[in-house]
Amino acid sequence: MRHLSQLEEQTRVFINDIERNEISPANPKVSKIFSWFSGDFKKELTIIQFINRYSEIQINEDADIDYMKYNWGLNDLP
Prior knowledge:
Shape: globular
Number of helices: 4
Largest sheet: 2 strands, parallel
Structural class: mainly alpha
Distance between the termini: 30 Å
Strand order of the largest sheet: 1-2
Helix content: 25-40%
């Protein structure tokens, strides 16, 4: 299932991108996408558990998540 590997790799890239997320153990600030589409991320896991699956830095389970202002310019093609 190559498409699953590509999806997981892109998820890792997105979560660890410091322009889109500021991951820290106690005060994570993550993309507004995680708020807008929380139902998609929380089907089997909490948002923290989902992010921790792909993040280089692990978020504490009891951390309060803040959502960053979405930068619509990130969607512009170079």
